[in-house]
Amino acid sequence: MARISTAGLVTAAILGAAFAVGSVINSYLPTRSDILLEPFPIAGEIAQPVEIRTGRVSADNVRVASEISQFGRTAKTPGVFALVDLTFDTNGEAPIVAPISYVGGDGKEYGGSQPGPRINNCGSAQVGLPVTCTVVIEMPPTALAGGKLAVYASPSKGGDSYALIDLKITAEQAEALIAGAKPVEIEATRYLGRKP
Description:
By secondary structure, this protein is an alpha+beta fold. A hairpin with a 2-residue loop joins strand 2 and strand 3 (55-70). The protein has helices at residues 6-28, 32-37, 171-179, and strands at residues 40-45, 50-52, 55-70, 73-90, 100-103, 109-111, 118-120, 131-139, 148-152, 161-166, 182-185, 190-191.
């Protein structure tokens, strides 16, 4: 009968422990499909165009409202409505961008597929004919400062690019915007002149 040495037992125990630790670590690592399904942000800033898979987007003119009206209907909020003018210039991949959400300074995402009132009245863009619309998203006043607009290239969000546009709203600017909040009539979609 073969005897197992103490060194052999220690080696076997170390290998067994290493395999167990490796298995636990491996269970926390993302799989290939997890990585492929993860959306990837393309950072930008207000008033600067950002290229995503479906075209070019830019955000301008951030405002805050306490009440919004469109098509004869009015909505009020105990929080605030953030209004951002968004311009989309399609490259022909898709005529619209959706979903659009606001990533607040508190780290939470508002709008998009989240519950609560929001308006995305962007019409369809055509190649060479950019569209500008006002995106409206409801949020608590504390989320306004440090906010970013997330504009996705596809409704599924997964495995695709999206613009993450820093709106450059400081705490002082947020306070001033909130203090000046008043009812706003939302403009209809605007089409810019044809580009060559």
